[in-house]
Amino acid sequence: MTLRIPPPLVVLVAALLIWIIARYFPMPLLVTPAISIIAGVIAACGIAVVLLGVAAFRQSQTTLDPLHPEDASSLVTRGVYQYTRNPMYLGFALVLLAWALYLSAWLGLLIVGVYVAYMNRFQIKPEEKALESRFGQEFLQYKKAVRRWL
């Protein structure tokens, strides 16, 4: 399967869908300062996880292009990649979760689930296939040792 849709675009579409849900199906009784604070903390954690993932790729001097994982010059397994094989996608999921909470778009939580399912099927599995082809046993051992999300 060829990867065609850049993950940041998938995130933007999901964020827009969450906003539409919040706009047309408002739940104002659930808007509280505590929810906003929790959403802010989750968003900050999500952004930090994304940035740690990007930094690990930069340190390994390998491609960040999610559409061409076969171009990777090295398998990144250090830093945040010791805990999750997909920190950037995990971070984006946390940001989407925070966005849904901040907007009190409780139905938007379904969009977060759809994002995770979509990424598993159409991004992560093809990436894993490309990385297995590129790095062989090294990737298989890493895959066995580290979970896909958390």
Automatic annotation (TrEMBL):
GO terms of molecular function: transferase activity
- Membrane-spanning ranges: 6-25, 37-57, 89-118
Where is this protein found?
Answer: Endomembrane system
UniProt keyword Membrane, yes or no: yes
Keywords, ordered alphabetically: Membrane, Transmembrane, Transmembrane helix
Gene Ontology cellular component list: endomembrane system
User: Under which name does UniProt file this protein?
Assistant: Isoprenylcysteine carboxylmethyltransferase family protein
Q: Name one Pfam family in it.
A: PEMT
Record membrane topology? Multi-pass membrane protein
Look up and give the organism this protein is from: Candidatus Halomonas stercoripullorum
Q: Does the keyword Transmembrane helix apply?
A: yes
Taxonomic lineage is: Bacteria, Pseudomonadati, Pseudomonadota, Gammaproteobacteria, Oceanospirillales
